[in-house]
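the two lines:
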Amino acid sequence: MKSKLFVMVMLMLLSLTLLLPSVCYASYGATIPANVAGSRSDIITIKRPESLSASTSDKTYTISATGASGTTVTVYKYSPSENIGKLVTGSRQIGASGLYSTVVDLTDDSNTFIVYAENSSGSQVVRIGINKIKKSTVDRLKSVTVTIKNFFG
Amino acid sequence: MKERIKSIVLAALVILNFILGSQVLSTKKLWSDDGYNFFVNFTNNPVSNLIDLIKNKFTGSAPIETHLESPEMLIINTGYQTSRLALSRTNEEFTAVLDVLNEFLLDAFSSPQKFFQASLDDLHAALTTKSVYMRYPADYDSTLFAYLLGAGSLDYSQVFFFFFDIVVSADGNVWVTDSLTGIVYRCPTAVSTIALSDVIDSHASENEQSSVIINYAFDLGFDTALMTQRTVLSPMIPIYSGDFNINTVTASNPLAGSNNLNAPSVTNLLKLFNMNPNILRRYTEADGTTVFVENNAILKLSPNGTIDYTAKSNGVQISKSNSSSHYDSISAIAEFVDSINTAVNSESMMQLSSDITAKQLSQDSLVVALDYLANGFSVKLDNGNLQNAVIIEIKDGRIINYRQLLRSYSVDENTITIPDYITALDDAISKYENQLNDIEISKIDIAYSDDGSDGEKQPFWNVGVKEIVITG
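prediction for all of em together
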């Protein structure tokens, strides 16, 4: 009886050990915890924005990345009021080209996106901040640039 | 007396009959490629020719559709990625926008000394502000391009060699990247920028709610390899964010008549190839190909719509000048190909598909290839014998070889969905995924595939690969 119990416990432990990684890297659904953390930092490389933050006057922004074929990438938008990330683009698996891009809407002045990537080796979380500035501000900045350029001739 | 007059008149009539009959037979004015035809006299008489002349004067000649110096695509950069807009040759605004741009090009290409070296960053900055990106179907020799534009015979070999895209920015600068060296050149122009700014602003307001976003590969950082990135794209490749719905087209052979070959089309073709129907020999091969043989040339017309012309010595003269340069000949090619297409009601929109470099232009003979455009997209033709719609060889201002597969395309109501750019690229690369290490993509565009048969033709993503590194 004792040995039977021992075998059962051992089997349970073994199955837990085997299942644990897949549970850890399981995909999130429509939301993701704000403090989510990945197990790796080399699954994807964010190409745009290069410095993980950018400012634009556009209504949308294209996030791009590269990664190994088979990696699933999901993008969430951080909601400060609820302190969670909400799904903005459905999961997409990186294909043979290794390239990934998605267009996100910029609904607020300050937008934080949580990019969640996972494959068989683990998961990675990247936070991207996109500030939306008014077109008039950009135009004013452009005119200043032109003036300076003209000044230096 | 009466009987005598009757006899004299009768004798005169008999003699006249013989004289006129012999004249008809000896001058052969009434012979066409189909044999003896009395009615040819009506169409060839001076009155008919005069009527045709007056008619052409009022209606104008057929417009030249094959512009060798024309880009295949324009992207209007509004300063905002959300409202960037791509125009193909079938878009109504294409010609109007191109007319505005050509003023800048003509000014820039009027002197090689006006071009200065610029940085790639400056070019990229120009593409993110108000500007228009022009992509050409092939690499152009810069000297030839200036010639085709009408800027004259200017030597650009000391500046840049050849290119396939040009950017005109709203501040009046023209930007060219040398395909050979990768060096960017900028040319400030003196052309007023008001019309260009108006064009860009009007498209920006119209396209503000666009569902498909256009980014260049450099925007997304896909033009530089980092870490394990295996796929690198040419910086100017436009990447569309979403799927497309594109109409299918139906292809047909315009040379196919009710019986065999369309007789009026054949007559028109013989005229264009300077073949005299009175002195040529004609026979039909086992596969139905009609062969016209003259002392200097052979013209074959296949039932599948293939024209195959070979000149033994002097071919069809297309260049007005006797200069040994190919420049005059190339500018005359478009007109000749248009004449063929008009004569047989073949598809009239064509574009250059072979690179024209200075090295090719310095050679004894020059081969130029053209392809059809259907619904604004290029048609990749391959019927087993021909991989281009037209292959033309010129020597001393004369056509010595000419091959064309005549086609007509009509746009269907049926549409099919083309996947977004990255999905298409994944599909293309996945076939070789296990073998290749790195891949450099030079071009990816939508094209129709045509195997030369009649019927529906579907669009597909056509991927151009610059370099592949195979494992092992």
